[in-house]
Write a structure and sequence with these properties.
It is a single chain. By secondary structure, this protein is mainly alpha-helical. The longest helix has 21 residues.
Length: about 55
């Protein structure tokens, strides 16, 4: 299987699933909010355990 045929199959699979890329279960606000919370949590952990002063 060549690289171009693999890319073509993946592009075909991506365009067929979910009605052209709009998937109803992926809410952009929920995804962005979850990512923001995860990054804030990581920032809190980093600053909490940074005790090398």
């Amino acid at each position: 299987m060549s690289l171009t045929s693999t890319a073509h199959q993946l592009a075909t699979l991506a365009s067929e699933g979910g009605g052209g890329g709009n998937h109803e279960s992926l809410n952009p606000y929920l995804t962005g909010g979850g990512a923001l919370l995860a990054l804030l949590f990581l920032l809190w952990v980093t600053t909490r355990f940074n005790r090398d002063r």
